Structure prediction request, 250 residues.
Amino acid sequence: MSSALSSHPTLTPNLNTTLRPNSTPSPSIALARSLANLNYDTLLSIDPLKLFLAQLDTDNAETRVDAMRRCFVVANAIGRDATLNQLIPFLANHVNKRGELAAEKSNAAAVPTGSEEDDEILLILAEQLGQMVISGLVPGYRALTILPILEKLAGVEETVVRDKAVESMNSVIPLLMVEGQSVKGKEEEEARQICVRSAPGLLLALVKRMAGADWFTAKISSCAVLPCVYQFFNGLKGTALVSTSENGMG
Prediction:
């Protein structure tokens, strides 16, 4: 692979990932299989996000897995605004559509998993979403839009995907505590204030949905998320949270 091609942000492996170390397939091979109709110069000029979406839209499972491993790299390349306004909504829609298709096939209300490749993609996504917030690329006060995706992933059938989603949720939730945090700019301050007002209610609703879900998978995940959510509330609301979880598991 040439140095110019390997420098493209979408093709650069995410060296921070803890998933399957030293087993990332060659980006050039995966890319060649999926985008063989593009010449060298065209490939280099493609926007990182467009290239990422093109790889995820292929029929080649290895290529889709390869693309998702670079989700955080793509987010870093396109910047925070494009990540929040374009990448995150796409990922949310991707997970929702997959869940709807799976539910139709199994007549299930949850989000069952599909092939091993699908499971691996969701596992990687669960980790990459957490990394976006932990790294500061997506500030905690703007991370509320990431939680619904992780909530979906925390209800799937595959245990390792659920565990990784819960791990990321438990990493993100403390970063939503932005009371008194100093930010720069009027827009950022407004976003921080919205988070301060909205986070407690949204988290309570999240735990209630998970604890009251039809499938046991989400119920189990709610118990693992509950301690972090509990910190957002005073004694009275905390007691209500414990009651909610007990009723949901009963």
